[in-house]
Amino acid sequence: MNTTTEKKIVVGVWPTLVYRDGHAALKFLTEGLGFTQICLYAGDTEGSIAHSELAWPPGGGVMVSSVGRQREQDDFSWLAEHPQSVYLVHDDPDRLLARAIAAGAVVVRGLRDEDYGSRGFTVKDQEGNLWSVGTYRGEIVE
């Protein structure tokens, strides 16, 4: 029996993003935003990604894959028309914004303080997906 008060957090929601260039996405997400790559499984064509998992240091994660030969029958035309969007909680968005820009992010909404107590920004990655970062951790429900 665990006698500490620590609880293991199990991630029950995984945003999943599909990219045309999965390796460029992984580089941006790890070097630009600070994710940690947990695993990577190669796809069926050279350079494609069947599945990868990235951990967000404060908790949670995302899954990333890329379009490969096995997925050719799927219609991924929506990727260009409808960017995907993910919100990340971070204690120091000012510092993270500079890191994201250095990795090639395009600023969509610069740093600002919100009425609900968050400070954050939104950037666009190389394929148009939106990454919003802020200090807001959600409402606490007891």
Automatic annotation (TrEMBL):
Native source organism of the sequence: Kribbella turkmenica
PROSITE patterns on file: VOC
Domain VOC: 11-136
Pfam families tied to this protein: Glyoxalase (PF00903)
Superkingdom of origin organism: Bacteria
Protein name, UniProt field: Glyoxalase
